[in-house]
Amino acid sequence: MARTRRLLLLSSALLLAACASAPAVDPILNHALAPTGTLRVGVAAGAPAALTRDLGEVLAGEIGVPPQVVAFDRAAQVVDAMKAGQVDFSCLEGGEPRARDVDFAYPLVRLRSGFLAMAIPKGRDPAAVAYLSHLGERLRSDGRLAAMVARAGLRGATTTIH
User: Mind listing the pLDDT tens digit for each residue in 7-54?
Assistant: First the structure.
C-alpha cells in the first residue's frame, strides 16, 4: 500500500512537472505569428536592434518555434519585408504612417521621439496582437523588459507607459 502511494505521488509529480515545462501553444495563434514554423524577426540596424532580437527570442520560445533574424539597414525595409510576407515580427517605432502597414501591440518603451512597440504584418489574426500586448505586460511586470532595454542601450527610454 505504501509503495503504491509513493508511485502514485511520484507519477503525479512527474506529470505536473511535464505540464509546467511544456508551453501550451494554440496552433491558430502559432500559425498567425510564425506561419512558416520559424519566427522571422526583422531587425533594423540601430539602437533598438538588440531589443528586437531579445523580444524575438522570447516570443519564439513562448510559441515553441525557432527564431530567425532577418537583418536590414533601415526600419522602412523591415516594414516592406512584412508587407511582402518575408518577416513575421519586429519591434518598431510606432506612428500613424507605419500603422497603415503593420499591426502594433500596446507600446513597450517610450522614447524622446515616440514609442517602440512589437509589430506583426497587417491582417494577421487579431488574437496575435492581443497576445503580443499581453506578453509585453508580462515582460514589463517581471522586470525582463527593463533589463532588455538597459542591455540595448536605449538612452532616455522608459518602460512605463501612461
Answer: 333 344 434 444 444 456 688 899 999 999 999 999 999 878 999 999
Burial degree of 133 (CB within 10 A; 0-12, 13-18, 19+) = middle
Strands (E), 88-131: 90-93, 102-104, 109-110, 115-121
Q: Give the pTM.
A: 0.82
pLDDT tens for each residue of 64-100: 999 999 999 999 999 999 999 999 999 999 888 899 9
Cell digits of residue 159: 518602460
Which cell numbers hold the place of 108? 513597450
Q: Which of 121, 33, 118 is nearest to 82 (CA)?
A: 121
- In terms of phi and psi (left: phi > 0; alpha: psi -120 to 50; beta: otherwise), the region of 88 is alpha
Question: Cα(119)–Cα(64) distance, rounded to whole angstroms?
Answer: 19
CATH code, residues 25-152: 3.40.190.10
Q: Over the stretch 41-65, which tens digit does the pLDDT of each residue have?
A: 999 998 789 999 999 999 999 999 9
Let me know: does 91 contact 51? Beta carbons within 8 Å.
Answer: yes
Give me the residue spans of the domains in the chain: 25-152
42 φ/ψ angles, rounded to the nearest 5 degrees: -80, 120
